[in-house]
Amino acid sequence: MIETIQWTDAGVVMIDQTRLPREEVYVTCTGYQQVAHAIRSMVIRGAPAIGVAAAMGIALGMQHAESAAEFETICDALARTRPTAVNLFWAIDRMRHRYSELRHQSVADIRRELIAEAQQIRLEDIATNECIGRNGASLIPDGKTVLTHCNAGALATAGFGTALGVIRAAVASGKKIDVFADETRPFLQGARLTIWELQHDHIPATLITDNMAGHFLHSGRIGCVVVGADRIAANGDVANKIGTYSLAVLAKENGVPFYVAAPISTLDVSLRSGDQIPIEQRAASEVTHVHGVPVAPEGATVENPAFDVTPHRYVTAIVTERGVARAPYSESLRKLVS
Ligand code: MRU
Q: Coil, helix or strand for 334?
């Protein structure tokens, strides 16, 4: 199994996703600020994975904290890393809740229990993804190609993955499928991470550039699209990696089912619609440069929204660990959450 993130005696160890697939190197964070930096710089990325990282960052920070007041400083630093994936805030809230339960215990007990909680969040995430996989596998048409975007795999989670978890479970159930992965400009999570992961598992995978998706969706070869999510509003609107919206529109136009695989912790029912989801804007250099090499003239004006919102009318179903939600999502998602 690919180990995305682990708690060790030396610190929080993460596979460095900025260097994959060229190098398989691990980063050891020994303080919460290092964890925050790893999240911001995308050493670790993907909604569930950054939730686990934040929980471990809090546990790590409290090992060195000199007073209880530092708890909120640590939580705030981790909350300021990336704004879109709600799993980050979900994990911080869970650690806050655990901390309030422990408040009257000894410092040694608090430190030990916060580590245990963060490790538990990691283990639960793997189990959740396996469950999402089981719930989604039957939706995948046998003998066809599955198109996915970005990386919603083991690397984006504590293990197994959400969208890639559904694909893994479909393959394990005996379905003969192959995968098309969009390269996912500008950060190339599809080219660098999804293809690497699928090669690891010997699942047949083909890399395409983002602008080839329409061509293949029209060809009849693609049986369905499966993607992950960073935040899902109460009405079923889905924030995910930039380019997901275009893919969903193309899928509908060509009569191809569009599935979203995500844990319940990705649902944000406090938001009525996707218009309220904060969209992260990232550095222009991600667009103007590829691996440090400029691909645009100096001084080019750039926009770099890291995510877009797919309106719920394009989503065929949302696969969670508690079951599969279909339209009307305001009802089906509310039921799953409660
Ligand atoms: O910017 P990233 O790489 O963190 O974006 C990741 C995605 O958009 C994923 O599709 C999403 O987080 C789901 S991961 C299971």
A: helix
